[in-house]
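Session log. Operator J.P. requested a structure for one protein chain; no other inputs attached. Running the standard single-chain path with token output.
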Amino acid sequence: MIENIKGLIEKKTSAFVVMDVNGIGIKILMSINGLEALPPKGNDALILTYLHVREDMLDLYGFVTERERHTFMQLINISGIGPKLALTILSGINPDKLKDRIVAGDVASLTSVPGVGAKTAKRIIIELKEKFIKIDDEDSLGFKDELIGESILFRDTLNALTSLGYKSRYARKVLDDLDNNGELRGELESVIKKALSQLVS
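Structure written below.
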């Protein structure tokens, strides 16, 4: 199995990325969320992978976090869900939201994803609900959701917040919001204070 690919981003589309690895262009299918998390064309990146082997084809699927890859693997182990549909699901719902909707038994949200009918949605809930309930929110089986391209400041602030007892997923959401608003900058201490003000509000 190909565990990961590290190289230069040569091309990005809405469905896949082409990585230049020592002069060889490797096509990697990814979710829309995964592709958006990658740096722009011309930059280096590390992509986690899963090689899907069939008699008539070899497809390489890519992920920016271990959680996304693990969720993908759980989905394709469900009868009736292949790699392409699993990728479509992860394009429409990120892993954390997918987990929440499965635990809540939210059939309507799952069926809003193209290709997912009511029967498939119910099958997903039946297969994965109890597994997800057993997973601790802070660190699912030790997985770390560090997206490709996260800054050192982001990671240092996240580590500081989790050491103060805040759940990783909630701290990460606050930091994402600060980053989107252009406020994830400056000294570490000031960023921590900004994040804390959001967490306690």
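Operator note: Strands lie at 4-12, 16-21, 24-29, 44-54, 57-63.
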